[in-house]
Amino acid sequence: MNLKSVPFNLSDSDIEWVNSTLAGMTTEEKIAQLFCLITYTDDENYLRYLAGGLKVGGVMTRTMSLAEIVNTVTRLQQSAKIPMLISANLEAGLNQACYEGTRVGCQMGIAATGDKKYAGELGRIIGEEASALGINWAFAPIIDIDYNFRNPITNTRTFGSDVNTVAEFGKAYVEEVQKHGIAASIKHFPGDGVDERDQHLVASVNSLSCEEWDDSYGRVYKTCIDAGAKTVMVGHIMQPAYSKKLNPNLKDEDVMPGLIAPELLNGLLRDKLGFNGLIVTDSTTMAGMGTVMPREKAVPLTIAAGCDMFLFTKNLEEDFAFMTAGVKDGTITKARLDEAVTRILALKASLKLHVKNNIPSETAARKIVGCAEHAKVEREVADKNITLVKSEKGVLPISPKKHKRVLVYKKEGSASAVGGGVAVGACDKFIQKLKAEGFDVTVFVPGGGWEGMAKPVKEVYDNYDLIIYLVSLATKSNQTTVRIEWAEPMGADVPVYMNSVPTIMISLENPYHLLDAPRVKTYINTYGGTDNILDALIEKLVGRSEFTGASPVDAFCGKWDTRL
Fold first, then answer.
1. How sure is the predictor about 490, in pLDDT bands with cuts at 50, 70 and 90?
2. pLDDT confidence of residue 453
3. Cβ(5)–Cβ(226) under 8 Å?
4. Nearest one of 551, 508, 417, 558 to 111, comparing CA atoms
5. Local confidence band at 455 (pLDDT 50, 70, 90 cut-offs)
6. Which one of 35, 440, 458, 527 has the lowest number of neighbouring Cβ atoms within 10 Å?
7. SS3 category, 120
8. Residue 416's pLDDT band (boundaries 50, 70, 90)?
9. Contact 366, 505 (CB under 8 A)
10. What span, in angstroms and rounded, lies between the C-alpha atoms of 450 and 371?
């Protein structure tokens, strides 16, 4: 471990602080530094307990108001003996941590612009806004590759399925966000997006051969590591080919997910890829780790195997006890404990937390978070990324003159998505924007009508000039598929009129819905449903703006009939 080299780049005085701080810590304090916990609240007693009582190394914040974030960071840093890492999921923008923050665009939406400048802008804006609030660790960018359209988690959170795009856009994010004193965390090693299962629910599998992995995930990780990424988040994902190559004695049942696989953490990530920074587990509340071994064994093994920080707990007291027992029984050696804590302290020193004021100013933050300049970039991204995947001749642009009477089919999901949440009420907002353009809009409501009793198709032909399907279904934890479920009876809202009435399908969240509506002739992906995106969408539908986005993935899902 070379603290003077990338990604820590510490000075002699920085290294002196790391060494002297480590030397002054008790074993209990070292164990506490291993933990990055979570808060949903700015409750003073709870925060003082985390920082001053338990003395944990870091805390992740969930979405709060700007004032609450400032209070949270202030109370944590004032209570901490050692400056704390304050983290957040910052994949699409600071809106994932702060309600007033800018949502620049999901990573796939950024990639759909075709311009890596916007990946840099994503990192810059997140860096400026996070820094203003005292957040210093971004659990981003995601550098998973969305190879499998059935994967229920990666999806629009990724930069797509092209290796070069993921590598270059990931690099641009890392370089920009870290200019602002925010550590990037590239994730989820050894790489999600191959399996179709959810690592929140099961230890999933990256099934590529070693050669295939080297040419894809290996290249992406090496690019971002060489760009100076300070941390790597390791997932509940197995990579059997490399595990067995690096440890030929492993049996199938001995292959473990990355966060407890020493051959992947050390042999692959440290040695082959040359990563010298901090390794953090993905959330240990996810089921992937629990499906392979008892928790009392798995908790200390994450550190023993080579991770430096343990993200969250299932039960606070119990997991602390499991980790402490692992130190006492030698599962975590003194050398490994000291190495992990050294990397934690080195990360803090590399961010200058030991020499700067870590208390944010609410007044100063309000001038930066969600500012007009950042909002302008958000609008640019929305304008440039909306993708016309397929188009029937003569349908676009639409107008009240040609398509006065519009029948809208809404297909909506819940708002609890893993990538920052579905834009609540997006379908209704879109309908209001259509009405404001002068369209008469009717929203489809499924009715009765089994065999022989359905309404005549002529009622649709005679009463509507245009049909729009508006789909807002996003990936989310504990949901193993992201598919359109059609209404009863007998798929009452399935697209069946597109050969007689012009039909447009618009997906606000998931780029792969042609799988369930293959013969729709006009299909659009927007990668989100914010007000800015909906405004840009209307502009393009009515012809005041051109479609310029390019799909970062195969929106046709590899099926021939989706291209009809």
1. confident
2. 61
3. no
4. 551
5. confident
6. 458
7. helix
8. low
9. no
10. 54
Give the number of other Cβ atoms within 10 Å of residue 247's Cβ.
Answer: 15
Nearest Cα to 109, choosing from 387, 471, 521, 298? 387
Residues 363-378: tens digit of each pLDDT: 999 999 999 999 999 9
Q: Provide the pLDDT for residue 422.
A: 62
- Per the listing, tokens 């209404």 go with 487
CA 399 – CA 546 distance, rounded (Å): 15
CA 312 to chain centre: 17
Residue 420 has pLDDT above 60, yes or no: no
Classify residue 560 by burial, with Cβ atoms within 10 Å: 0-12, 13-18, 19+. Answer: exposed
What Å distances lie between residue 68 and 74, 363, 371, CA to CA? Answer: 10, 13, 18
Kindly report the length of the chain.
Answer: 564
Beta strands in 74-195 (DSSP E): 85-88, 137-138, 183-189
pLDDT digit string, tens, across residues 3-40: 999 999 999 999 999 999 999 999 999 999 999 999 99
Q: How far apart are CA 73 and CA 363, in angstroms?
A: 15
Report the alpha-carbon distance of residue 299 to residue 316 in Å, rounded. Answer: 12
Strands, E, within 242-306: which ranges?
A: 278-281
- Using the structure block, give the residue that is written with the tokens 């640019």: 380
Amino acid, single-letter form, for residue 454:
A
Would the pLDDT of 222 be above 80? yes
The per-residue pLDDT for 488 is 84
Element (H, E) at 524: strand 522-525
Sorted by where each starts, the structural domains of the chain and their CATH numbers stand as: 12-368 (3.20.20.300), 386-563 (3.40.50.1700)
- Would you please indicate which residues are annotated as catalytic (active-site) residues? 282
90 Cα distance to chain centroid = 7
- Region for residue 316 given its phi and psi (left: phi exceeds 0; alpha: psi -120 to 50; beta: otherwise): alpha
Assign 481 to helix, strand or coil.
coil
Q: How far apart are CA 299 and CA 290, in angstroms?
A: 10
